[in-house]
Amino acid sequence: MEYYDILLIILQIVFSGVLFWLGGFAEKRKNPKWRVCYLVPVIITLIIMAMNGFEINMLGAYTGSAVCLAGFIKESVKIRRISSVIAAVLAAVSIPVCLLSGSYRIYDYARDFKNGFDHMKKYYVLSEHKGIDWDGLYNEFLPRFEEVNRLQDEMENTIVWTEFCARFNDGHVGFVPSGDYELTMTEMYDKVLGNDYGFAPMTLSDGRTVAVNVGVDTEAYNAGIRNGTVITGWDGVAPENIDDEAMKYFTFADKDNKEFYRTLICGGTGGDSITVTFLDESGNEKSAVLQKIGAYYSGRMKDAMKAVNGGIETGHLMWEEIDENTSALRLKMMMSDSKSMKSDNYDSLSWSIESQIEEMKEAGKNHIILDMRDNAGGSDEMVKAIASIFASEGEHYYCTDPVWDYMKKCYVTDENGNFVKGTDNYYTGRQLWDGKVTILVNANSVSAADHTVLVMKELENVTIMGFTEPNGSAQGVGSVVFRNEAGVSFSGSLLLDENGNPSVDSGTDYESGNDVDVIVPFDEDAVRVIFDEGGDYLLQKALEY
Asked: Of 97, 412, 445, 544, which is most buried, counting CB atoms within 10 Å of its CB?
């Protein structure tokens, strides 16, 4: 941003010389149009201030451009030349002032928090539904952002915003840092998730904790810990009691999903070494002291999470033949081609799927899998387009729009604080497929993916499966963007169910309203297939069901 300031100073000094000369030239060739030239410094300054923001240490340069207005107001050679010299001097003085000031162009992170907080408090649509304590959040986090401001620590700013956003238990609330998102978030998780001890812990459906993603040539491996080894102790506490400090950086809209990933996320807890107790192959309890092999547990955790979350390894909207009876459609998001996205018309996608379905019928297949694991959401119109293919003929309920007060710019509530129902929305089923449909989901199947699960689990031939429920966040997205191009997303528009309640999103009970038909047990077989064989256990279960 300082480059804009330097540009302004250079332009002002150069233009001051031009205006000095112009003062004498205009006297020789009388013409009122020369007055306009003395407005140029102010115009340039206003443009650069709009691009770069106000900087108190640049006050001299700002004042100098204003001084040039004297030449616009008074057609006097003396006044014009004096004002030009003053403008040049004030601009030049700004250089040492900026260089010597410790406050020059310090970014105001606390201001971002205040602005973002005020915007969210005004427009976040689930405040009452989730019981958000806005005053408590402000009092807790403002001092932390003031400390970020003091330190001018961009990474700490990302950390604090991430923790703040996680408090909402809403998959649509998240911080987007400026610059490279993936790089910044990777560095953040490297910093906050602790140390790598050679394996990641995960809790099985029966409550036992086991090792997964065990690294060969590590102390853990040499001590006898393998994928599936039962971990009984972690530095003197039961695995389920591992310090869960790391959880505050992750957003879960449903407490069951949070519990599924808890021990995996917290597997970096410990110091330079930890003492782990585990059951060996004979069932005897053993103990091992494991030195940290790196400060970055986050990489091992993410690799384990990626293996568990799975997803057929093919492109978005690509079909994969699974066996003689089954084909799978990979849906990584609820968006299609750019033309469909711009028009919100997914007829071409429908035709493509219809064509594939006809080929499957001719080949004698009877099972379609829609793989929506890690589906990032997208268009409601695409949700309707896909659901209409499988739903029985006729109208099917989709969602209800709340009533909006255009004067007050908010959703209307009744005397009890409940949202007032507006228009019911439907989609038209065409029942182009009579065979079995299985939809695979995980905790990252969010937004429009949540909508897809919600409407399609009502269909008789559809089964929703996963190790977990989908994310549990279904409202429309709003955002606020800061001066450094970072920003915060949040649930900014509302969708209701038939009872007039916010659709899908959990309330104060921390329970999403979007259950699945089959929760596949995460057991020893799952660990073996996923981490020893590199297989897709959830897909295997879908074929067996």
From this structure: 445
CA dist 520 → 176, 348, 409 (Å): 33, 34, 44
- Structure tokens given for 168: 């909402």
Q: Taking Cα atoms as reference points, which of 337, 314, 334 lies closest to residue 456?
A: 334
Question: What pLDDT was estimated at residue 167?
Answer: 97
Q: Say whether both 398 and 275 belong to one domain.
A: no
- How many independent structural domains does the chain possess? 3
Q: Tell me the two tokens of residue 134.
A: 């806005």
> Residue 348: inside a domain, yes or no?
yes
Tokens describing residue 177:
């840092």
| DSSP assignment letter at 223 | T
State the burial class of residue 361 (Cβ atoms within 10 Å of its Cβ: 0-12, 13-18, 19+). Answer: middle
Outline where 245-314 has alpha helix (H).
Answer: 255-265, 298-309
- For helices 40-52 and 59-67, the axis angle rounded to 10 degrees is 150
Q: What's the pTM?
A: 0.84
Q: Cα separation of 257 and 522, whole Å?
A: 13
Contact 529, 537 (CB under 8 A): yes
Q: Does residue 137 sit within a domain?
A: no
Residue 82 included in any domain: yes
pLDDT in tens, 78-97: 888 888 898 889 888 888 88
Residue 369 near residue 355 (C-beta atoms within 8 A): no
Reduced to 3 states (helix: H, G, I; strand: E, B; else coil), residue 58 is: helix
- Exposure letters 146-156 (e unless 16+ CB within 10 A, then b): eebbeeeebeb
- Average pLDDT for residues 179-196, to the nearest whole number? 95
**CB of 270 within 8 A of CB of 295?**
no
Contact 452, 464 (CB under 8 A): no
What does the pLDDT look like over 420-436, one tens digit per residue?
Answer: 999 999 999 999 999 99
Q: Return the pLDDT at 59.
A: 85
Closest CA to 348 of 380, 375, 317: 317
Longest C-alpha distance within the chain, in Å? 105
Residue 438: what are its φ and ψ, rounded to 5°? -120, 130
Label each residue of 426-440 as H, E or C: EEEECCCCCCEEEEE
Burial state string for 482-495 with b = 16 or more CB within 10 A and e = fewer than 16: bebebbbbbbbebb
For residue 30, is pLDDT > 70?
no
* Range with lowest mean pLDDT among 15-29, 173-187, 211-225: 15-29
What distances in angstroms separate CA 456 from CA 367, 380, 386, 392, one per listed residue? Answer: 15, 13, 9, 11
Whether residues 510 and 429 share a domain: the answer is: yes
Domain ranges, residue 268: 200-308
Q: Report which residue type is found at 337.
A: D
DSSP state letters, 441-465: --TT--THHHHHHHHHTTSTTEEEE
Question: How many CB atoms neighbour CB 343 within 10 A?
Answer: 11
